[in-house]
Specification:
5-stranded antiparallel sheet, 5-stranded parallel sheet, 28 helices, Arc Repressor Mutant, subunit A, about 55% helix
């Protein structure tokens, strides 16, 4: 066991038989100390009563009552159960489990590096270096998840649901031997894609039209933690899938985040409250203010943005007032704190008052917290330059993460060069309007969901929208053409995660192309380029959808060309695996091969002969399958 273990405000020095709370010695009896050492050494694992009795009282026969007595004393010394703190959970009939997040001696960076190396299959994004005010939430969630297997974190937009879920994933990655997978549902617009997206993230190839059944069969005996992030806009599909997994896979654990509960069997809801703020009737000093997580977050984020905020008693009252007006929502607090470096604390508070008085009347009877965030976004948007506003609106065309190359392709024009784009994005990142995420040696960017929804509501002319969507579609067509060969070789969840973010933007482009104001001809090209990618990622139903839609849109000038050849081949393969040996699959593959044969291109013919041979093999037409194999 490591020499030093820390959890919450405690430090456990096992070799020295010391327990410290913020540097102050905690008095513990010998048996209680031994119990703590055993439980803390294996967090999130159940230790049976028999095992504890044998290890703490090796040469003495004692009753279970003695064990319960010392566990009770240990909990009392730790303050277990006070102010939401949870350290030791009792699992009836099984034993005890230490549920608080722990870190062992050595830096957290070293630990996280070892975890990343040892568990490359996990796809968790980086956790925050410091998560303010959520230690008790993390401990309580660990208790619930260990005991129930299915927890949904529910809270308003911007309250930190994803942040807590990612932190939980990192805390539990060792307990699940690396089998921790985050599925970002925020990039989906079609609820029908939820099961196939989960399967694709697990690198699971499903040769059936019933993706849910195949997924459940795979998970039936797996010990795994699935984190379904941002469920609210696909809630029916996410709820149905989670309920079936919970019922059919007894070792699978599910942690979901949503603005509303899933309301299905097995779910336990954890409501993530806003950060606590100092009450307005409190005699507030700087020292007292720092004891509240909302004010502590404000001060830390203001300092991180470059503000020199030496908090005194007068400043503490201003900060507390700002946090109360922002209802303790972390995202809103961070947006406000980011302005202190430019405007100072007093002016920031004044600007906030001017922007929010109409939306927050004195008597508020439980207003939706979204209004609080909306008001903050209104205010933050008002502080942007005209060009920054233009860039923010254009960036809203992206869904999920995007690269700087993608942003340049959409932004640059005869009047807007690279330098202007780089400068505006850098400013938006600084102002907390655009989030960043490292991806290897490069950086990915993203508008938070609430920020993107806000930007999409801004008025833009039809010509501007058409030009923006066209540029976006053009970039992702080129991206598909450049990365198409990489897709079948993606072996890790992290690699698939980056590519799936691009694929989400391909879906947005396809929706526009085949929409009322889109470019159908371009959509046909995009669907043809996307089809082999959908197939390689086992997104068969989606492949069938777009291939069929593009084929129906073909006109005389494009019929019989390369696009139709690729689309018919993709349609045939997707039908073959999702609906069996139907005539439609045969007709699509034969049509594709006829076009390839007419062109006389050997590579095109080869790409269709393989699926044809497989189709006839699957339908029992072995002589025909042999003929196609020989021709290959």
């Amino acid at each position: 066991m490591s020499e030093e273990i820390t959890f919450g405000p405690f430090t456990l020095l096992a070799n020295e038989r010391l327990l410290l709370r913020q540097g102050v010695l905690v008095e513990l009896g010998a048996r209680a100390f031994d119990l703590l050492v055993i439980l803390a050494a294996c967090p999130n694992e159940v230790v049976s009563k028999a095992d504890l009795l044998a290890r703490v009282w090796p040469d003495v026969t004692v009753e279970e009552g003695s064990l319960r007595f010392h566990i009770a004393n240990l909990r009392k010394a730790l303050g277990d159960g006070k102010n939401g703190a949870r350290y030791i959970a009792t699992l009836t009939g099984r034993g005890y489990c230490f549920v608080a997040p722990v870190s062992r001696s050595g830096s957290r960076d070293d630990v996280q590096s070892e975890i990343a190396t040892g568990y490359p299959q996990a796809n968790l994004p980086s956790r925050l270096t410091r998560m303010v005010g959520r230690t008790d939430d993390a401990a309580a969630l660990s208790t619930q998840l260990a005991a129930t297997r299915f927890v949904t974190i529910v809270g308003t937009g911007g309250v930190g649901k994803t942040t807590v879920a990612v932190a939980m994933g990192h805390d539990l990655i060792e307990a699940f031997a690396g089998a921790v997978h985050l599925v970002d549902l925020g990039a989906l617009s079609d609820p029908g894609l939820v099961p196939t997206t989960v399967a694709s993230m697990l690198d699971l190839s499903l040769e059936t039209g019933d993706a849910i059944s195949g997924l459940i069969a795979y998970l039936a005996n797996k010990r795994i933690l699935l984190i379904f992030d941002t469920c609210e806009h696909v809630i029916d599909a996410a709820a149905g899938l989670a309920a079936r997994i919970f019922a059919a896979a007894p070792q699978a654990h599910i942690l979901a985040t949503s603005r509303e509960p899933l309301h299905v069997e097995g779910e336990h809801v954890y409501k993530l409250a806003p950060l606590a703020c100092p009450p307005d009737d409190l005699e507030l000093t700087a020292a007292v203010a720092q004891g509240f997580p909302a004010t502590r977050l404000f001060v830390e984020r203001a300092a991180a943005s470059g503000a020199r905020l030496d908090l005194n008693d007068a400043d503490a009252a201003v900060v507390a007032s700002i946090c109360r007006k922002l209802d303790g929502v972390p995202l809103a607090i961070e947006l406000a704190a980011g302005r202190v470096a430019s405007y100072g604390l007093q002016k920031t508070a004044a600007l906030l008052d001017e922007r929010l008085t109409l939306l927050w009347p004195g008597q508020r009877t439980a207003p939706p917290r979204q209004k609080t965030l909306q008001a903050t976004l209104d205010w933050s948007f008002g502080l942007l330059s005209e060009f920054e506003r233009l860039v923010l609106r254009r960036l809203a065309v992206f869904v999920g993460h995007f690269s700087i190359e993608a942003a340049r392709a959409v932004m640059t024009s005869a009047s807007v060069d690279d330098a202007l784009v780089f400068g505006a994005i850098d400013s938006l990142v600084t102002k907390s309007m655009v989030a960043t995420r490292p991806a290897g040696a490069s950086m990915r960017y993203r508008l938070l969901d609430t920020t993107r929804a806000y930007a999409l509501r801004l008025e833009v002319g039809d010509a501007e929208l058409t030009n923006l969507a066209s540029r976006h579609a053009t970039y992702y067509l080129r991206w598909l053409e450049e990365t198409g060969a990489e897709w079948p070789t993606l072996s890790s969840a992290a690699q698939r995660s980056l590519h799936l973010a691009g694929l989400a933007n391909v879906r947005v482009a396809l929706d526009w192309c085949f929409g009322p104001n889109g470019n159908t001809d371009f959509g046909i090209r995009l669907a043809a380029a996307a089809a082999p990618v959908f197939l390689s990622m086992s997104l068969l139903t989606e492949c069938h959808l777009w291939a069929a839609r593009a084929i129906l849109a073909l006109d005389d000038t494009m019929r019989g060309g390369h696009e139709e050849m690729h689309l018919q081949a993709a349609l045939g393969v997707s039908l073959m695996f999702t609906r069996g040996g139907r005539d439609a699959a045969r007709a699509a593959l034969n049509r594709s091969f006829a076009i390839a044969d007419e062109y006389g291109d050997a590579l095109d013919q080869l790409q269709v002969l393989g699926p044809l041979q497989m189709f006839h093999l699957r339908t029992g037409e072995f002589r025909t399958a042999l003929r196609y194999a020989e021709r290959c």
